[in-house]
Write a structure and sequence with these properties.
By secondary structure, this protein is mainly α. It is about 60% helix and about 0% strand. The mean pLDDT is about 90.
């Protein structure tokens, strides 16, 4: 690859992140998040003062304390590392979801035999598989997240994400590359499993509804809630909706430094698996002004070199020590 091709590849990577609807940081999704935040704050001003003050809303959204925080600068560092330096070097998915799906289908056919294709129309099957595979992604996300909060070795790679002391949409990139590598492979296993089970049950190939290669349900959540999960805006869902969908406030509870919130709200977009396994924490109506971060000794959580090297050193130190129960070690470090 010559220099021109290298630069074109990096430019393509940036444009994909900023323009693809399936990106966790697309400009369109950020614009929608800005509009939702503005509308939420405007509604709150009307309730409290009977009028909207746009300048006050803009000041609340563009808070200097958050924009110029060292935590935000560390998020930006991870954005560049994961986008440019590491993204092109590691094949994130060692396990292919498609390969996993084929294996599941072959295994089920060998165990139970084949059956006639479903007579259900495509307009019924396609929404079905789209939802089913989305739930596979969600379950894979939950399993990955649960393991990383309960196994000390994995926690060391996941911990940098929780060291963020202020939350912005950039915090989604505050993830160690090894954490990302593990995540993509676990999710591939479960999406492939759910896809394979559905195809076997249907008895024929069924296409998922996608936008730019991403499940359309995932895209909807990326636009409606994902950008606000890492933000200072307390937007809660309560009651039955709060038991089904994870609102921005749900995820802010997950980042809370309060021990009562440890290992809560582990899902990505839906709350059903947290609810099912007793990990759901419903946000209160008014913001409790949570503090974010990780309990540490004298370490600087935003030191640039430490963001990349310390998780590796700490993880292998855990293996050498072979000490204690994983869950106790993790909770002590939070």
């Amino acid at each position: 690859m010559n220099i021109l091709e290298f630069q074109i590849e990096k430019l393509h990577r940036v444009t994909t992140i900023l323009l693809s609807p399936g990106s966790p940081f697309s400009l369109a999704a950020l614009a929608v998040a800005f509009a939702i935040a503005f509308g939420f704050l405007a509604r709150r001003q009307i309730q409290r003062r009977g009028a909207v003050r746009p300048r006050a809303i803009l000041r609340a959204i563009m808070t200097p304390r958050i924009i110029f925080s060292r935590s935000t600068y560390a998020d930006l560092f991870y954005f560049f590392i994961n986008t440019f330096a590491i993204g092109g070097l590691i094949g994130w998915a060692l396990i292919s979801g498609a390969t996993e799906s084929d294996l599941v289908i072959r295994t089920l056919r060998a165990a139970f035999g084949s059956h006639a294709p479903s007579t259900a129309p495509d307009w019924a099957l396609r929404p079905g598989i789209t939802l089913f595979v989305f739930l596979g992604f969600e379950f894979g996300y939950y399993v990955d997240h649960y393991l990383k909060h309960k196994i000390s070795f994995l926690w060391e790679f996941h911990k940098p994400h929780h060291t963020a002391e202020v939350l912005t949409p950039l915090t989604v990139f505050r993830v160690h590359p090894i954490d990302t590598l593990i995540f993509f492979n676990i999710v591939a296993v479960f999406t492939g499993l759910f896809h394979g089970v559905f195809i076997y049950a249907a008895g024929k190939d069924v296409n998922i509804y996608v936008i730019d290669g991403t499940n359309i349900i995932t895209v909807a959540f990326l636009f409606l809630s994902a950008q606000l999960q890492h933000s200072q805006f307390w937007i809660p869902l309560r009651g039955l909706p709060g038991h089904i969908i994870l609102s921005p406030a749900h995820h802010q509870i997950h980042h809370s430094i309060d021990p009562a919130h440890y290992d809560r709200n582990l899902g990505a977009f839906v709350a059903i698996f947290d609810w099912m396994f007793g990990r759901l924490s419903i946000p209160q109506k008014r913001s409790p002004h949570l503090k974010f971060g990780v309990l540490q000794s004298d370490d600087d959580p935003h030191r640039i070199m430490g963001l990349m090297t310390e998780p590796v050193a700490n993880a292998f130190a855990v293996l050498v020590r072979r000490a204690g129960a994983p869950s106790e070690s993790v909770e002590a470090s939070q």
